């Protein structure tokens, strides 16, 4: 067992990590899933690249980016998750953990915690209202709030450099993350949900204004692009509107003029 796997196993039995135990069990220890993830992200992250993981949770994507040879800035506001990230990637100088929300402005924000399912904790009150009574979301409760630091993509770029790829997964707050970006980047992804499609549409408009030109998507956790062809923003907007509600979520992948699809 390597050091990272050992750290994960230790966290699973740690009483202070009980809230993220299910995430550790789901996101670590599946070699087939890790191989599929690496093959998928290899089109975006190369050895020596800098990657931002915004909403890193317990760091399974961090692990993939590291296996691909990228340096990673992992941004995550939840203390149990940042504690896990620091334990799992202890001693890895190519992983930097930033305990903060990423949004439109720097400062402090109120963060809504779903204690039973922390992977969908969020800053966004709109996301919580959209989930209220929605099919498949009936049991979800955001039962605590914590005060957390907020940074922006532009501030992260100023401190750490220009990333080759940014992964954004922040439960309905993706448009606010992109509001804090003032320049095009080679590539990024943002999560969408079918309970809040308007957030994805705002993200597309923002990215188009920044100079992103080619778009694709992956449904759920499939680690596969849904279309063989990259598309312009209007077609992607229509595609997102047409998705059945049952799709629930996925990620939109976006390329600027500075990088061609691979």
What do you see in this structure?
The chain is of the alpha/beta class and 262 residues long. 35% of the residues lie in helices and 22% in strands. The chain is built from 10 helices and 10 strands. The chain has helices at residues 3-12, 21-27, 31-41, 60-67, 79-88, 125-131, 153-160, 174-179, 197-210, 233-242, and strands at residues 50-54, 71-75, 95-98, 101-102, 107-113, 144-151, 165-168, 187-193, 212-219, 249-256. The strands form 2 sheets. The protein has a 7-stranded mixed sheet, sandwiched between helices. A 3-stranded mixed sheet has the order 4-6-5. Strand 1 (50-54), helix 4 (60-67) and strand 2 (71-75) form a beta-alpha-beta unit. It is globular. 42% of the residues are buried.
Summary tags:
22% strand; 262 residues; 10 strands; three-stranded mixed β-sheet; single chain; seven-stranded mixed β-sheet; alpha/beta
The strand count comes to 10
Gross morphology: globular
Order of neighbouring strands in the sheet with most strands: 3-2-1-7-8-10-9
* Straight-line distance between termini: 34 Å
Give the helix/strand class.
alpha/beta
Report the average pLDDT across residues: 95
How would you spell out the order of helices and strands?
HHHEHEHEEEHEHEHEHEHE
Specify Rg, calculated over alpha carbons: 17 Å
> Can you tell me the residue ranges where pLDDT is under 50 for at least 5 consecutive residues?
none
Give the percentage of residues in beta strands: 15-25%
The helicity comes to 25-40%
What can be said about the biggest beta sheet? Answer: 7 strands, mixed
Count, helices: 10
